[in-house]
Specification:
alpha+beta, Immunoglobulin-like, five-stranded antiparallel beta sheet, three-stranded mixed beta sheet, 10 strands, disordered C terminus
């Protein structure tokens, strides 16, 4: 009997030991598997690049030298000039308006045939109106502007040097020496009829003038 009790006790003890071992072994959970390598995170936005160094400021290019100013033309020699004023009598003021074409013509005195020595085309302004004729106004380059000349000042309403219209006014200085200053020419004569230079009763052929000249 004692042996049986000893056997049971021994069996129960062994079972308890195994049970305790089993429970302990069951209580121990297997170590977690070692995680595989963490996947690399998605690449972030690229780091901003460093600003490129600004180019060193270059020296300002000096402006190109401006062209030399044209020399002012020297005034004509007074000895080769006739100057003065054109006057408009009160009786003729209604015949001339500002802006009307005005021709100043110099010829050899005495009615010597040939082209005018000098011609200017101006616009009528306030009277008395200053004028000056010189070799610079010569019709034919190289022809001397000297000696005795006649001067005609004509208001030409249509502005055409080939025509002289009835009602146009003009004035003449029949003889003056080149070099004279302060002369006066009065617009005191009225054109009596229409004339075309090169034809008509007062045409250029009768005055010894080439066609096309005032």
């Amino acid at each position: 009997m004692k042996d049986l009790l000893s056997f049971i006790r021994s069996s129960i003890g062994t079972a308890l030991v195994c049970l305790s071992l089993g429970v302990a072994s069951c209580a121990k959970s297997p170590p977690p598997e070692k995680p595989s390598g963490i996947a690399p995170s998605a690449p972030g936005p690229p780091a901003p690049s460093a600003p490129a160094p600004s180019a060193a400021p270059t020296a300002a290019t000096p402006p190109a030298p401006s062209a030399a100013p044209e020399p002012m033309e020297s005034p004509p020699d007074p000895k080769q000039t006739v100057s003065g004023k054109i006057v408009l009598p009160a009786a003729r003021k209604s015949d001339v308006e500002k802006g009307d074409t005005l021709f100043i013509i110099a010829r050899r005195a005495g009615g010597i045939p040939g082209p005018p020595l000098a011609v200017q085309r101006l616009q009528a302004g306030d009277f008395p109106m200053p004028f000056s004729l010189s070799a610079r106004d010569a019709m034919v380059p190289g022809v001397p502007f000297e000696g005795d000349i006649s001067i005609t000042v004509r208001v030409d309403k249509d502005g055409d040097a080939m025509t002289r219209r009835k009602g146009d006014v003009f004035g003449q200085l029949l003889k003056v020496k080149v070099g004279t200053q302060a002369v006066r020419i009065a617009l005191d004569t009225v054109q009596a009829e229409d004339v075309t230079l090169g034809g008509g009763p007062m045409g250029a052929q009768r005055q010894g003038l080439p066609p096309g000249h005032p």
